[in-house]
Amino acid sequence: MLMSLRDDVYRKVLSGEKIYEHRKVFPDEPVKAYIYVSAPTKAICGIMYLSNRTSLLKWKEQYKDDAECVKRINEYLSHHNYAMEINKFERTNSIDLEQLRADLSKFVVPQMYYYIENTELLDYLEEKLDADGFVVTHEYEFIDSSMICKA
Questions:
Q1: What are the domain boundaries of the chain?
Q2: The organism sits in which domain of life (predicted)?
């Protein structure tokens, strides 16, 4: 999968502040997503490993006694239906949009995400991207309502 993130969201991933990725639609299986960061970065610069898709409506029921959490969930529900745990993020060297378009004539910037299994793009990324050693990991053993629908 190739997934886009806004630059401000990407910085929250790097800092470890963002522990869930929220989307309107998400697959119900673990995901390895190459991350394209939008302007001003305009580059692929990492790999995110996601799992455990959760419905925001399920959280709304689970945390119904926490008014502040329910308020945050309701705000997220206007644009998202699901959250997935960001288990690991690996920063890589960057491949900027200009280089992607020069090397891959069919490259399309993702609006949300798209699948890249068995594509020239996946082969290209596997060849050109190298992890730089910076990794962010998260554990989800002790999640409370203050961590839901934040960042």
A1: 2-53+84-145
A2: Bacteria
* Whole-Å CA distances, 14 to 5, 11, 46, 79, 88: 12, 5, 10, 23, 10
Phi then psi dihedrals of residue 109, to 5 deg = -70, 130
- Helices of type H across 1-150: 7-15, 56-62, 67-77, 97-103, 120-128
Q: Which residues on neighbouring strands pair with residue 23, listed in sequence order?
A: 82
pLDDT digits (tens, 9 = 90+) for 37-76: 999 999 999 999 999 999 999 999 999 999 999 999 999 9
* CA dihedral for 67, 23, 38, 46, sign (positive or negative): positive
How far apart CA 67 and CA 60 sit, in angstroms, is 10
Nearest to 12 by CA among 109, 114, 108, 136: 136
Asked if 7 and 46 touch (Cβ cutoff 8 Å), the reply is no
Q: Burial code of 9-37, b = ≥16 C-beta within 10 A, e = fewer?
A: bbeebeeeebbbbbbeebeeeebebbbbb
d(CA 29, CA 51): 6
Q: Name 113's bridge partners.
A: 3
Which residue has 């890589």 as its token pair? 92
